[in-house]
Design a protein that fits this description.
The protein is α/β, with parallel strands linked by helices. The chain contains six helices and seven strands; from the N terminus they run ααβββαβααββαβ.
């Protein structure tokens, strides 16, 4: 029987350093239940197709790479290139690049998107989706701080957010992300808990 004023049983178990294996399973299950599902994100990819996330990535572990300024092209491209080199060939993984263009004046958006299309290999255009709306909501979602940073979101197969991070690419930061992706893809339950947030 729980005494008045005691913290909930789940909290006591999560804080226990020497918790038994059964309790650890409960912790992982609880963490998975608490994970946030990615809000709907819609746009047209560079191949001219409508894309709705997380639906388009359903059944796969996904990384979304967002940029909010022209200068963010360098860090977002660096992250995408490094991730693709390690994971693009795996059928259980998908990467989307999502430049946010809502603040770009309407009369030049077409030229900006056309330039992106010309600079993107044909086999990557399906997963390159310029976003023309929802900037405020996206900034809140990624804990926006610096306009020229790359912002990354890792999703499990069900579209729940496993991890968020932002900043420039470094070997140490990439190793942390790679380990999280490998863990998510190797686990039989893609809701298995990985470190939920890393902010740089």
């Amino acid at each position: 029987m729980q005494s008045p004023g005691e913290p909930p049983l789940r909290i006591r178990k999560r804080s226990s350093v020497l918790a038994p294996a059964g309790v650890l399973l409960l912790v992982f299950w609880t963490a998975a239940q608490d994970q946030e599902t990615l809000p709907k994100i819609e746009g047209e990819n560079l191949a001219g197709q409508k894309v709705t996330l997380p639906d388009a990535a359903a059944g796969k572990v996904a990384v979304l790479v967002l940029g909010f300024s022209k200068a963010s092209k360098e860090p977002t491209s660096a992250w995408a290139k490094r991730i693709s080199a390690d994971f693009a060939s795996q059928s259980s993984f998908v990467l989307y690049q999502l430049p946010v263009l809502q603040s770009v004046p309407r009369f030049v958006r077409g030229m900006v998107i056309s330039s992106m299309r010309k600079g993107t290999p044909a086999d990557m255009r399906e997963h390159f989706v310029p976003l023309l709306s929802g900037e405020a909501e996206l900034k809140k979602l990624v804990n926006f701080e610096k306009p020229d940073d790359a912002y990354l979101i890792v999703l499990n197969e069900s579209g729940k957010i496993l991890k968020q991070l932002h900043g420039v690419l470094t070997d140490e930061r990439y190793a942390d992300l790679r380990n999280s992706l490998q863990l998510a893809m190797k686990s039989g339950d893609r809701s298995y808990s990985v470190p939920s947030s890393t902010i740089w």
